[in-house]
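Batch manifest, entry 17 of 40.
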Amino acid sequence: MRLRKKWSAVPRLLDSGKALFWPEEYKGKWKDYFANDNKIHLDIGCGSGDYCLHMAELNPDINYILWDREAGVLVYALDQLEDKNIANAVLIPREIDGIDQIFAENEIDSITIHFPNPWPKNRQNHRRLTYPNRLKKYKYILKDGGTIDFRTDDDELHTDTLLYVKKVGGNIISHSDDAPPTKVISHYEERFRSQGVKIKAINFKF
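Output type: structure tokens
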């Protein structure tokens, strides 16, 4: 089911105190923001946030940052965050290209990129969340040994992402064109599996 945009999303996010529209001030100081030394996990393109917020509930000793460019979708994550009173998560409604202005070098422990827009047309490929210029920025903010977990239903995006990772000198830990379900399954993955679509996955580091 496609989520409808909520046009009141920006005011709601602004008033919530749980969404950061100007997160640059925390660059290099995210542990101060969370007021602890726990690991920091970044979910890029989190959508409604059901996967990441469930993980936050299961892992209260990890800090979760949910990032998506669409405020109208992030407001659904805000609903869950408030309803469940999840304290170890925050939302960032921003475009991804300035990510290295928001996190310092080696500041993030791990990243998930699950079911992003495949942008299939050649002229759109540069907008992919796994495009090489963006992978280089993830490399900058990830700690040594930090991993990226990527999942997609799209065959071409899976194949191209394998090439992108190699192009920027990444190390593929594992990959599959018929991956088993994650411990916590998102509504996207649940929907694709119900349609008989094989899930493709890549786990890698730099």
